[in-house]
Write a structure and sequence with these properties.
The complex is a heterodimer. Chain A is an alpha/beta fold. Chain A is built from eleven helices and ten strands. Chain A is 44% helix and 19% strand. The relative contact order of chain A is 0.13. Chain A has two domains: 63 residues, no CATH class; 191 residues, Rossmann fold, CATH 3.40.50. In chain A, the strands form two sheets. Chain A has a seven-stranded mixed sheet with strand order 6-2-1-7-8-10-9. Chain B is an alpha/beta fold. In chain B, 29% of the residues lie in helices and 20% in strands. In chain B, strands 1-3-2 form a three-stranded parallel sheet, covered by helices on one side. In chain B, strand 6, helix 3 and strand 7 form a beta-alpha-beta unit. In chain B, helix 2 runs parallel beside helix 3. The longest helix of chain B has 12 residues. Classes of the chains: A alpha/beta, B alpha/beta.
Chain lengths: 275, 161
């Protein structure tokens, strides 16, 4: 285990600068405590000293890709926080169903679990044919996994437990084909989604959405970056579009609070106030 | 503890996700201090008891606010006590007091040792006094606890500090 002294704050900054210069990847506005813990974890697991880590990051591209996977947290679940999906179904879906087309953005989608959860929710609400979900992430390896849409049965059992608690009427496995010890999401759900690379730190608006879900991504950002990304979301939402954040995340800035109406305070669902 | 205790208290309890618990309510009813479940980037203020949310790790940031993290469980636990202890050690160092109570795994032992090495006051609940002795025992085995005390003695020590 690390003792906190494995990496100084100055070394963390040095590393952040290096990764930005060499790979164009900007971690400077990431929450420091979590970032530091991830870097120390890499050094401990690989028995690397700070110098070794720097050397590998500069000279070994495969190592950098692996490092990126380790540093960015890619832990996700289908139907994480069942009460959130319950609230979506009750308070947001009826509103979305009045639209001709519904475009949804899942920002920081990792291995695609949230995208497919939303696809299942929209499908079961009868909006499958008129909705489309964009999943974006900074991690190309994760996007590949998301596109495959194959999950281990061990994971699916956990996801099915979440699904049950959402109060949805079907069963999760209705949406999967199960072969051996893995489950593949049905093509009709895959066809309603598109996964592409997008960085919330450095990329800008690419479409207009009726709903944006960005859950448990802000926790890795310092408040200033959070504000910048909230601004990006506001500008990417259609008038009266919905913004869903993680249950334990919060809009801290008073200026931005004024731009959104609270739809569900407990589940952190907001609606853009038309300007 | 009184409402003018003067310090912030962080409580990390192993609990299952998806089950709304009454822990905060239970604590609040029996304490004169303000009780809150932690939200991301919340400022840490004195005279407040903060409870770590289920299914997240709770970390302490240099800016004296909380950071949350959904990364892998540690010792099958999320929240993990080790994660909170180690980040508190990094920010608060010797100004921390850490207590490890009853529990059924080894979570918290390494973190408590980190805290002890940075000069914090570290206490493990006497395993004989604990409902599940494994957690304090694990800490005692690696010499992470400066004091090994029963619950009543822990309270006395905290009041003196």
């Amino acid at each position: 285990m690390n003792d906190g002294s494995g990496l100084t704050d100055a070394q963390l900054n040095e590393l952040t600068d290096l990764v930005n210069k060499v790979h164009g990847f900007d971690f400077s506005a990431y929450s420091k405590a979590s970032l530091k813990r991830r870097v120390v974890r890499v050094m401990t697991n690989k028995s690397m000293r700070f110098y070794d880590l720097k050397h590998a990051l500069v000279n070994n591209n495969d190592f950098f890709q692996w490092f990126l996977d380790e540093i960015t947290v890619n832990v996700t679940e289908m139907f994480r926080d069942p009460d959130f999906y319950k609230a979506l179904n009750k308070q947001v879906i009826p509103y979305l169903s009045t639209y001709q087309h519904v475009k949804v953005w899942s920002a920081g989608c990792s291995s695609g679990e949230e995208v497919y959860s939303l696809a299942i929710l929209l499908n079961e609400a009868g909006l499958g044919k008129k909705s489309f979900i964009y999943g974006t992430d900074v991690n190309t390896e994760m996007l590949k996994e998301a596109r495959r849409g194959i999950y281990s049965l061990k994971k699916i059992r956990n996801y099915a437990e979440n699904y049950q608690l959402t109060g949805l009427k079907g069963t999760l496995t209705d949406h999967f084909t199960i072969m051996y010890d893995a489950a593949t999401i049905h093509n009709e759900l895959k066809n309603n989604s598109l996964f592409s690379i997008h960085s919330l730190v450095s990329d800008s608006i690419f479409n207009e959405f009726q709903m944006i879900c960005c859950r448990n991504v802000f926790i890795y950002f310092e408040t200033e970056l959070q504000e910048r990304v909230l601004e990006l979301f506001y500008n990417s939402l259609s008038p009266l579009g919905f913004l869903c954040m993680g249950t334990k995340e919060a809009i801290r800035s008073d200026r931005l609070k004024k731009k959104f109406k609270v739809i569900n305070a407990r589940e952190n669902i907001y609606q853009k106030i038309a300007d | 503890m009184d409402s003018d205790f003067g310090k912030a208290v962080i409580v990390v309890i192993h609990r299952r996700k998806n089950f709304f618990s009454e822990i905060e309510k239970l604590f609040a009813e029996n304490s004169r201090m303000l009780f809150k479940e932690i939200t991301d980037k919340e400022k840490i203020k004195p005279n407040t008891v903060y409870v770590a949310p289920a299914n997240y790790h709770t970390l302490v940031e240099k800016e004296r606010c909380f950071g949350l993290d959904v990364s892998e469980s540690v010792w099958y636990s999320k929240p993990s006590i080790d994660v909170t202890f180690e980040s508190a050690a990094d920010v608060y160092k010797q100004r921390c007091t850490a207590i490890l109570f009853s529990g059924a795994n080894q979570d918290g032992a390494d973190g408590l040792l980190t805290l002890r090495n940075t000069g914090a006051l570290t206490i493990a609940q006497d395993p004989l006094d604990a409902e599940m002795p494994q957690m304090p025992e694990a800490a005692i085995n690696i010499d992470a606890a400066e004091y090994i005390l029963r619950t009543s003695e822990i309270l006395e020590l905290i009041e003196l500090k």
